[in-house]
TrEMBL record:
SUPFAM superfamilies: NagB/RpiA/CoA transferase-like, Winged helix' DNA-binding domain. Residues 6-61 form the HTH deoR-type domain. GO terms for molecular function: DNA binding; DNA-binding transcription factor activity. The keyword Transcription applies. It holds the Pfam family HTH_DeoR. This is DeoR family transcriptional repressor. The keyword Transcription regulation applies.
């Protein structure tokens, strides 16, 4: 299993690939202060994930760009009607006076908006955009600190991981990046994978909310297995083969 430094380097390498379109082994090895053989292994890994196409002396980015983190502002404008329907179903799972953890992401943000009319909940999140619409509600809101990531408007790092490890929540709502051919929900950031994993372990009921377009690509870092998830809420566009696989591992709820 790759260690944390390897995972972080591969994440950064993937970001460079998408940003620049191609990389050269020698230049990247010098940038990361590692051997060219190490970078070749990294590129082989990214090639297998569908993120890079390895060639002589380097690699080019594949068309699988959804495996790399997309700006939240862009996500917030896509498939809003579908995400709102998913959120309405998700909100029905919350117990009265429940303790709720909300992950970052555009679909989870829709879940947060669906809770505006609820009261007497304890809501905990590491994302500014998640707690903002809930600020004027009759709920107790906790924002977990850490290193701020502008791309997701969320905090990451051991402060947040330790905070979530100390929480005993009734339910957690998690977002996910690319789901194609993966054995669990994913994220494009290693740091966010750490904190999402802590969220999963902190809640009695674990729910992933995601529209079916996430099955068009494969995410970089899997933060738990589908067997760790109690409900997966999505739309009817989920591929049939993926649906059959997931139904053996968790309860799938498909919106109308």
């Amino acid at each position: 299993m790759a260690n944390s430094l390897t995972i972080e380097r591969r994440n950064k390498l993937a970001q460079i690939l998408i940003s620049e379109g191609s990389v050269k082994v020698g230049k990247i090895a010098e940038m990361f202060a590692v051997s060219t053989e190490t970078i070749r292994k990294d590129l082989i890994y990214l090639d297998k994930k569908g993120i890079a196409t390895k060639g002589h002396g380097g690699a080019i980015a594949s068309g699988n760009i959804l495996a790399i983190e997309q700006p939240l502002a862009r996500k917030n404008t896509e498939y809003l009607e579908t995400k709102d329907k998913i959120a309405q179903i998700a909100a029905q799972l919350i117990p009265e006076k429940g303790v709720v953890i909300l992950d970052t992401g555009s679909t989870v943000q829709c879940v947060a908006k669906a809770l505006v009319m609820k009261s007497r909940l304890t809501i905990i999140s590491n994302a500014i955009n998640i707690v903002q619409p809930l600020s004027g509600t009759d709920n107790d809101i906790f924002l977990v600190g850490g290193k701020f990531r502008p791309s997701s408007l969320a905090t990451v790092g051991m402060w947040g991981v330790n905070a979530f490890q100390s929480i005993n929540a009734d339910i957690v709502f998690l977002g996910s990046d690319g789901l194609k051919h993966r054995n669990g929900p994913c994220t494009a950031s290693y740091e966010e994978a750490e904190i999402k994993s802590a969220m999963v372990k902190s809640a009695r009921l674990r729910v992933v909310v995601s529209d079916s377009t996430k099955f068009s690509s494969s995410g970089l870092f899997q933060f738990c297995d589908w067997s760790d998830i109690d409900y997966f809420i999505t739309d009817p566009g989920i591929p049939e083969d993926e649906l059959k696989k997931m139904e053996n591992l968790t309860e799938v709820i498909i919106i109308d």
